[in-house]
């Protein structure tokens, strides 16, 4: 049986599934329920400095977009950091950690960009017995207007500075949570590393407006006829998050920097994908908010089953395995030729592949009077759109042409050699180099 | 009254008023908003969709379902009504299991089609509940068209003609419009007076006058209509009933199923409608099933549908057969009536067992009796008048746009050759004939 135990920057947990710092981890009550359900760790919802807590809006905090059957695909929120007193949170953290010593408990922090503020909060957090801290440089709404959250995360120098303050003032591991609301995630990641961060976690939520109410022309969620951009998360952001993870993993400056993957992780498979891109563990929020804490049980069983099937005895066996395969476009093999193949046994004759190819692609699918859809190899550029729009998984696949076969579209014999843009005759840079 | 399912003879009040009301409630209760969204989400928006091809009126089904899914049921209804002005009734009575839903790719893939019929009802009910009529008339053409028969074919033709600017006068033999929608189909498919409500809604287009109790060949002749109007459309249906051609057909208790159904549809109080203890329905089509199931729902103890051929040849769809058997109706296949038994009153029917393998009907030599105190004949309807027009296989001969053998006279629906005897087919034929009449009257036709 696969061993799901993890040690991430020295923090142990029985499995790699942590709850991200967010509404589900705001209180002792919720966190105890999460641990009872099986979550390996929790990042406690962000604490602010001592004093009167922040206040939240008293209208809707969340907006959403949906797929078929009202499946929640994306969620945004305008909730701020914890609105409960610091001392109360600290008491609860201490009590929970005492009762669940085997579970990871990391505390998310956000205080003003002043060394004294960080010096003040670090010891009181350390005193709870928490396993580590996560610096919230990511929240894109509300707190950023006050110079915190993503306002810090968008300035690499600030990230480095605050990270260094924390490393100098606590023995706890420091995880820096990155905002995706930047142009190139590698720079904030490098800054965190320079500041001495033990790890980065990413992504925080994305600036977003989920919808506009067409009766009163107000963005959702709407507070008294007005709305503010909120942080977007859920399954819809997973591709964005995974790219950012991969960029950090394959960048020479940050390669090897431990990462905690966050962004739309909903199933064991999502988690495995993030870890294959170099994440040592993952954090989940929207899936728990959508389905409840029980979802972790599927994540645990699914990951274990897959690892057993693949012969991975521990998570380290596959962490980062996909990183070497993430490449710049210019290094992709242009001599690799595939063609779409439609399984007539599986085809349900909906014709979506035909509509997609005929209207929006390369007119490479034929349709007979009795609705038989077939790929025309002499037109197929292997774009994969038919695969993507087909409602039957596995019905349309891509077949690789073996070297020596003729690509009917180009009339060229398929080469077994690697050939990419860097050496392609159409590339002006190649000509210039000669 | 003290009657029960076990009371001998043809009596009323076999079950309580509450039980009758429950039995005759909506066969498919309408989808609520949530159910409609869930159902609409299952549609794949197929290219050149098989469901649309299978629909005799070619409703753009993927489009109207997408319109429902995006919260615009009113637009969905307009998509439906453009092709089929009786989309509301068709949503209730169409044998969708042999039309659109049979070829739905999700039926093929999963055995569970998108609920096209019920979604169509959701959209059309939404608009009809608002009392809105989505179409307006074109400028008057000064032309007048007679439409004979206010059933599905006639109403469809009349609406299209009125919309195109013609003045329409409808002549119907009965005191109410709607045709088989009002007098024919089973009550649980059209509850709460829907057939009349639909006629009233349809007439909101304007320009249509209906004259009732004007039977063709009696109150009015085709020649008169040709004199009065610029064109004539006949949608008179099949008013006659085939004879059993079995001895004893005239015994007390033997009746045409269509009469029983019409009486049932027009009854104010179903607890006062008599039905036998043991009912035998002879025939294999929708009328037979409708008569049998409704007999059972009125409280008959034993109801048997006797059909002379085998299951595969039965006109009633698999869905209808299951509907019947799930209500406790027994279907006796390969049973050909030989004689109706009884001394004055019917006491049973003697049948000859048949084989029909290979399509050839032959008696096996075996005979058997089924006891009955009421027998319904449902072996097909016939044309009552051909009005002097050419006839083909018992129906008025027409071309694909409904032209008869006489210039200026069109026909459609059950009375005309071509197409199945379905409400939806009649609507398509009425609509298409109207377009051809319009083209002809406006000088665009041949």
Question: Topology, pairings included?
Answer:
The complex is a heterodimer of chains A (434) and B (446).
Chain A: E1 6-8, E2 11-13, E3 17-19, H1 28-37, E4 41-47, E5 62-66, E6 72-77, H2 86-99, E7 104-109, H3 115-126, E8 132-136, H4 150-153, H5 156-169, E9 174-177, H6 186-194, E10 199-202, E11 206-208, E12 211-213, E13 218-220, E14 230-233, H7 238-250, E15 259-262, H8 268-276, E16 279-284, H9 286-291, H10 295-310, E17 338-342, H11 352-360, E18 365-367, E19 373-375, H12 385-389, E20 396-400, E21 406-407, E22 412-413, H13 428-433
Parallel strand pairs in A: 3-4, 3-16, 4-7, 7-8, 8-9, 9-10, 10-15, 15-16
Antiparallel strand pairs in A: 1-2, 5-6, 6-14, 11-14, 12-13, 17-20, 18-19, 21-22
Helix pairs in contact in A: 3-5, 5-6, 8-10
Chain B: H1 17-23, H2 33-41, H3 50-54, H4 61-69, H5 73-83, H6 87-93, H7 100-103, H8 105-110, H9 116-129, E1 144-148, H10 152-163, E2 167-171, H11 180-183, H12 194-202, E3 208-211, H13 222-228, E4 231-234, E5 240-241, E6 254-256, H14 257-266, E7 278-282, H15 286-298, E8 302-306, H16 318-326, E9 330-332, E10 335-341, E11 348-355, E12 362-371, E13 374-377, E14 381-382, E15 391-392, E16 395-396, E17 409-411, H17 423-441
Parallel strand pairs in B: 1-2, 1-4, 2-3, 4-17, 6-13, 7-8, 7-13, 8-9
Antiparallel strand pairs in B: 5-14, 10-11, 11-12, 15-16
Helix pairs in contact in B: 2-4, 2-9, 4-5, 4-9, 5-9, 6-9, 10-17, 14-15, 15-16
What does this structure look like?
The complex is a heterodimer of chains A (434) and B (446). Chain A has 434 residues and is of the alpha/beta class. Chain A has helices at 28-37, 86-99, 115-126, 150-153, 156-169, 186-194, 238-250, 268-276, 286-291, 295-310, 352-360, 385-389, 428-433, and strands at 6-8, 11-13, 17-19, 41-47, 62-66, 72-77, 104-109, 132-136, 174-177, 199-202, 206-208, 211-213, 218-220, 230-233, 259-262, 279-284, 338-342, 365-367, 373-375, 396-400, 406-407, 412-413. Chain A has 2 domains: 6-324, Aldolase class I (TIM Barrel, Alpha-Beta Barrel), CATH 3.20.20; 329-433, Alpha-Beta Plaits (2-Layer Sandwich), CATH 3.30.70.20. Helix content of chain A is 29%, strand content 21%. An 8-stranded parallel beta barrel of chain A has the order 3-4-7-8-9-10-15-16, surrounded by 8 helices. Chain A starts with 5 loop residues before the first strand and ends with a helix. By secondary structure, chain B is α/β, with parallel strands linked by helices. In chain B, helix 15 (286-298) links the parallel strand 7 and strand 8 (302-306). Chain B is globular and about 65 Å long. The N and C termini of chain B lie far apart (65 Å). Chain A binds chain B through residues 68-70, 348-352, 354-355, 367, 371, 391-392, and chain B through 37-38, 41-42, 44-50, 105-106, 108-109.
């Amino acid at each position: 049986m696969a061993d799901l135990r993890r040690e991430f920057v020295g923090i142990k947990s029985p499995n790699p599934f942590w709850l991200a710092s967010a509404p589900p981890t705001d209180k002792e009550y919720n966190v105890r329920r999460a641990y009872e359900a099986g979550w390996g760790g929790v990042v406690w919802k962000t604490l602010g400095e001592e004093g009167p807590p922040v206040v939240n809006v008293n209208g809707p905090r969340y907006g959403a977009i949906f797929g078929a059957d009202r499946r929640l695909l994306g969620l945004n929120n305008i909730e701020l950091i914890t609105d409960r007193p610091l001392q109360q949170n600290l008491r609860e953290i201490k009590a929970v950690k005492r009762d669940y010593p085997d579970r990871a408990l990391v505390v998310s922090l956000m205080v003003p960009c002043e060394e004294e503020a960080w010096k003040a909060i670090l010891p009181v957090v350390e005193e709870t017995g928490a396993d580590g801290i996560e610096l919230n440089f990511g929240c894109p709404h509300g707190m950023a207007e006050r110079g915190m959250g993503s306002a810090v995360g968008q300035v690499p120098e600030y990230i480095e500075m605050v990270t260094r303050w924390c490393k100098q003032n606590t023995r706890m591991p420091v995880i820096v949570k990155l905002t995706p609301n930047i142009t190139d995630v590698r720079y904030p990641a490098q800054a965190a590393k320079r500041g001495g961060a033990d790890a980065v976690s990413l992504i925080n939520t994305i600036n977003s407006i989920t919808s506009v109410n067409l009766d009163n022309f107000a963005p959702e969620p709407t507070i008294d006829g007005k709305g503010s951009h909120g942080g977007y998360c859920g399954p819809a952001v997973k591709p964005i998050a995974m790219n950012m993870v991969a960029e950090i993993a394959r960048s020479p400056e940050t390669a090897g920097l431990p990462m905690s993957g966050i962004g739309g992780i909903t199933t064991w498979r999502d988690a495995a994908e993030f870890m294959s891109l170099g994440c040592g563990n993952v954090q989940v929020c929207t899936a728990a908010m959508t389905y409840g804490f029980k979802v972790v049980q599927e994540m645990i069983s699914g990951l274990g089953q897959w690892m057993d099937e693949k012969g991975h005895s521990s998570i380290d066996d596959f962490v980062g395995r996909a990183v070497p395969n993430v490449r710049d476009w210019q290094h992709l093999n242009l001599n690799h030729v595939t063609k779409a193949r439609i399984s007539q046994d599986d085809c349900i004759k909906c014709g979506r592949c035909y509509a997609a190819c005929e209207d929006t692609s390369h007119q490479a699918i034929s349709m007979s009077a009795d609705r038989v859809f077939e790929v025309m190899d002499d037109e197929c550029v292997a774009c994969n759109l038919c695969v993507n729009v087909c409602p039957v998984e596995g019905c349309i696949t891509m077949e690789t042409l073996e070297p020596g076969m003729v690509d009917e579209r180009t009339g060229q014999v398929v080469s077994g050699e690697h050939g990419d843009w860097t050496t392609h005759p159409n590339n002006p840079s190649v000509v210039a180099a000669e | 009254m003290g009657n029960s399912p076990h009371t001998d003879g043809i009596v009323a009040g076999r079950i309580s008023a509450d039980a009758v009301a429950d039995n005759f409630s909506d066969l498919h209760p309408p989808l609520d908003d949530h159910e409609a969204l869930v159902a609409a989400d299952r549609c794949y928006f197929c290219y050149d969709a098989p469901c649309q091809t299978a629909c005799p009126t070619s409703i753009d089904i993927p489009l109207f379902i997408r319109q429902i899914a995006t919260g615009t049921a009113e637009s969905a209804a307009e998509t439906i009504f453009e092709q089929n002005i009786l989309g509301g009734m068709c949503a209730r009575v169409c044998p969708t299991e042999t039309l659109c839903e049979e070829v739905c790719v999700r039926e093929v893939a999963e055995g569970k089609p998108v609920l096209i019929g019920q979604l169509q009802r959701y959209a059309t009910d939404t608009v009809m509940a608002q009392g809105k009529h989505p179409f307006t008339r074109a400028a008057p053409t000064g032309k007048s068209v007679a439409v004979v028969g206010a059933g599905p074919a006639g109403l469809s033709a009349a609406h299209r003609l009125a919309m195109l600017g013609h003045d329409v006068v409808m002549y119907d033999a009965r005191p109410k419009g709607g045709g088989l929608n009002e007098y024919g189909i089973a009550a649980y498919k059209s509850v709460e007076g829907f057939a009349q409500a639909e006629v009233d809604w349809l007439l909101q287009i304007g320009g249509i006058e209906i004259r009732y109790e004007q039977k063709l060949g009696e109150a009015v002749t085709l020649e008169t209509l040709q004199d009065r109007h610029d064109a004539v459309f006949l949608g008179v249906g099949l008013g006659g009933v085939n004879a059993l051609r079995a001895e004893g057909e005239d015994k007390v208790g033997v009746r045409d199923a269509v009469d029983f159904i019409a009486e049932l549809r027009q009854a104010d109080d179903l607890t006062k409608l008599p039905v036998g203890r043991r009912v035998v329905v002879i025939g294999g089509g929708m009328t037979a099933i409708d008569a049998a199931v409704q007999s059972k729902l009125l409280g008959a103890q034993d109801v048997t549908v006797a059909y002379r051929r085998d299951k595969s040849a039965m006109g009633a769809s698999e869905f209808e057969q299951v509907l019947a058997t799930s209500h406790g109706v027994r279907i006796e296949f390969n049973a050909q009536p030989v004689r109706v038994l009884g001394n004055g009153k019917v006491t049973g029917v003697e049948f000859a067992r048949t084989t029909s393998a290979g399509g050839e009907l032959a008696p096996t030599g075996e005979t058997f009796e089924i006891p009955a105190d009421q027998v319904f004949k449902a072996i097909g309807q016939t044309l009552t008048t051909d009005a002097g027009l050419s006839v083909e296989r018992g129906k008025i001969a027409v071309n694909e746009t409904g032209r008869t053998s006489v210039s200026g006279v069109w026909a459609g629906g059950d009375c005309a050759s071509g197409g199945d005897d379905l409400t939806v087919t009649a609507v398509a034929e009425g609509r298409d004939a109207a377009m051809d009449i319009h083209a002809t009257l406006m000088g665009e036709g041949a």
